[in-house]
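[INFO] parsing input record for Aminotransferase class III-fold pyridoxal phosphate-dependent enzyme
[DEBUG] input buffer:
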Amino acid sequence: MATVEVARPNEGVDNLMLGYSDLRSLQTRRPLVIARGDGIRVIDENGKSYIESCASFFNASFGYSEHELAEAAYEQFKLMPLYSSASHRTVDVVLRLTEMLTARLPLPDAHISYCCSGTEANDYAVKFMRYRNVYEGKAAKRKVISRQNSYHGSTVVDSSLGGAKGLHDSFALDMADYRFVTQPDYFNNRLEGESEAEFVARLAKELEDVIQEAGPETIGMFFAEPICFSSGLTPPPDGYWPAMKAVLDRYDILHMDDEVITGFGRTGDWTAVDNTLGFKPDLMTLAKGISASYFPFAVTVISDPVYQGMLKGNDIQHGFHHAGTLHGHPVGAAIVIRVIELMEERKVLEHVREMIPVLHKGIHAWRGHEAIADTRAVGLAGAIQLDPAAFGPKGEENRGQMGQRLLECCMERGLIVRPRADSVIIGPPLIAGAADYEEIFALLALGMKDLQEEMRRA
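[DEBUG] output buffer:
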């Protein structure tokens, strides 16, 4: 197991609230405590090394020991360690970064709003949509449609956007302005005998039905990742995005492209827009890889047509009344600039494109394995979905938790994967090389063997 039994928690542990953890378990079980990092590996307090094959939360794009980024932070700390970009004041490093970003993002004449996390960026996308619609004479268009089994952040707004009813109920969220449609997961959500084309047509009709039921005059935005990682890495079938876009255009609904995970290299480009969506979204969010997570930093990107509507509100209100103390932090901006420079100097996007087929080959090699129900891969990420029935009665007993069980076995072998229901996802730092992938898949195979033996014994 990845945790250590202790007689009593050491200092700090019993006062720490760890997200996505069992709070009671923290009282008796010490969590995995990471002491340092080295490339794509992390080393715990006992000296054990793990390959982080999911880059923490798909965010450590340059791994855990990139000294160039640490140096960029240090130099900025010495020059100007902090300043709030607001009230008609900013710092030069923020202006330089804005120019660099707009030159590389797919939205023509894009406008950039800075914040500290993907959660904030997504929350603000909804806020900006409402602001724009108020001053475009469409104040009623405030509801948002997102997808079941999705995740967009942890604020009240973002938790409402996430497609998990248990989460909505447990936090007593007001769901009046949120609607949901089916995740485009063909393997798990198709009807018996349904072709991919029929599946896409059904989902497009479902979207239109949801719009009609809620009232077309009340829906302001469709909010979705180009590829949903939170549902177990489910790339949509061919034709999905054009079909959805046609419905959105018919009802004058904005499309918000959540690229918190896919942006900054995960698909082999700066964003997934051109090679996944095939059209330009109205808003976009970027976080995680934008700073390689060496600093909390994120952006909401606003297309010019949406921005023009926001300008109407600005003119009426004599200013744009939105800001944050740490938004556009100069140290974060300096790190992002260096990330962009390193990606170009080291040809990181080209390297990712070379590694994509290596990862895909390793993932799809599991097809036909007795314990695997499905394999999926897109960009520099892949997933294997376990078949609980293949593990006997104990597997059925753990249905929906097999990914977690496999994670535990893999961690014993020195590999961290990302569990999601009965699937595990692999999406290592962008810098991982062919030898790293060979080791990842070898350790994954050992973890799978251990899980099968454990289930047989049980």
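[INFO] The chain has 16 helices and 17 strands.
[INFO] shutting down worker
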